[in-house]
Amino acid sequence: MRSGKILAGRMLAATLLVMTLGNTAADPQFAPLEATVRAAMAKTGARGLAIAVVERGRPVFIRSYGARNAAGAPLDHDTIMYGASITKAVFAYTVMQLVDEGKIDLDRPLATYLAKPLPDYGNLDAYGNWGDLAGDDRWQRITARMVLTHSTGFANFSFLEPDGKLKFHFDPGTRYGYSGEGMMMLQFVIEQGLGLDLGAEMQRRVFDRFGMTNTSLIWRADFARNLADGWKVDGSVEPHDERSRVRAAGSMDTTIDDIAKFAAGFMRGEGVSAARWAEMIGPHLPITTRSQFPSLQPEAPTTERVVGLAAGLSVITFNGPQGPGFFKGGHNDSTANMWVCLKRSARCVIILSNDVRAEREFPTLVRAALGETGMPWGWEYGLPVK
């Protein structure tokens, strides 16, 4: 009972802190960061951006800038923004809780959790084209660890294939190749094999735990009151998508307040054992490509790889002048998000932008928030490796 009261007290304190930070003037300590944000928006033409800094498991700075829609309504700390692929890291945090509970083994083939062979389920619009895998038994080897390290051998999504069919491009577990399709396979196993509702599990295990009251994997009608549309590279407006399906690969809507709560709770290690937390942000599989995208590019010569870059479990780990770190990005035509953390100092920065043009200045913003991290921007965005 006492531990429950302590946890509840901590959650209340964290919530009140975030509310305070979101509604008061910026701390003078962060004035240089604010100036950098404004300069970055002016330089890129980005219309909206929100940023949070977390130090040792607590948000210390949360601010939003610009507009949430073409009418000029202000983007604020409670504005609903698209989480994009940061969803994958939140999903992985949920999976690690299932691992702690013995419901999933990271290295047990996912096929063994299902009542029948994966291809026999056919092509399911809500999940994936499993029927396409008939005749190639490599699906039997895929594990949760392979999914979370993006080493299933699948393309990002089968609809990106020239023929639209799901197929293997390399043996599972042998190399990194970013794949949302793999995430959907793990979601399928959790829901069809374990009989769990992933949306409900993530709501209970993550969103409710950290007081993320404005976060969901599917559209909520109350989101319409304060919703961010997006801006594309050409400056055109993209209406916010009202996502009606839970998708582990990237259906999360959130706010800068809420994602800061997640990042803070994550850095405190709440909800998972110390062993699972360390496993999630540790290096599992060296990354051997020049950049993250295109996802199925050839492996680069050793001299052209980023030294120390590796796949964690739905995050990417790296080494830099401040020691090891990890990050997870999120992107679509009108969204640019980034979460970067340093392990030794337990400091993080989270950026959500409803204007993809802001992405060009993310290296500058992260440097202003955390100092020089060694973050591999060249690999992440396909820039020349330095």
Written description of the protein model:
- By secondary structure, the chain is α+β, with helices and mostly antiparallel strands.
- The protein has 2 domains: 10-87 and 205-381, Beta-lactamase (3-Layer(aba) Sandwich), CATH 3.40.710; 104-195, no CATH class.
- The chain has helices at 2-23, 31-44, 86-100, 144-148, 180-193, 198-207, 256-268, 274-280, 362-370, 377-381, and strands at residues 48-55, 58-66, 81-82, 123-124, 128-129, 230-231, 237-238, 253-254, 285-286, 310-311, 316-320, 323-332, 335-342, 347-353.
- An 8-stranded antiparallel beta sheet has the order 2-1-14-13-12-11-10-9, with helices on both faces. Strands 3-8 form a two-stranded antiparallel ribbon. Strands 4-5 form a two-stranded antiparallel ribbon.
- Strand 10 and strand 11 form a beta hairpin.
- Helix 3 (86-100) packs across helix 6 (198-207).
- The radius of gyration is 20 Å and the shape is globular.
- The model is unreliable at 1-25 (pLDDT under 50).
Outline of the structure:
With 386 residues, the protein is of the alpha+beta class. It has helices at 2-23, 31-44, 86-100, 144-148, 180-193, 198-207, 256-268, 274-280, 362-370, 377-381; strands at 48-55, 58-66, 81-82, 123-124, 128-129, 230-231, 237-238, 253-254, 285-286, 310-311, 316-320, 323-332, 335-342, 347-353.
Q: What's the number of extended β-strand segments? A: 14
Strand order of the largest sheet: 2-1-14-13-12-11-10-9
Radius of gyration: 20 Å
Total domains:
2
Overall residue-averaged pLDDT value: 93
Which geometry do the CA atoms define? globular
Query: Poorly predicted ranges (pLDDT <50, ≥5 residues)?
Result: 1-25
The CATH class of the largest domain is Alpha Beta
Distance between the termini: 53 Å
Q: How would you characterize the largest beta sheet? A: 8 strands, antiparallel
Percent of sequence in beta strands: 15-25%
- Give the H and E element order: HHEEEHEEHHHEEEHHEEEEEEHH
Can you tell me the CATH topology of the largest domain?
A: Beta-lactamase
> Given the structure, what is the number of helices?
10
CATH architecture of the largest domain: 3-Layer(aba) Sandwich
Give the structural class. Answer: alpha+beta
CATH homologous superfamily descriptor of the largest domain: DD-peptidase/beta-lactamase superfamily
Helix content range = 25-40%
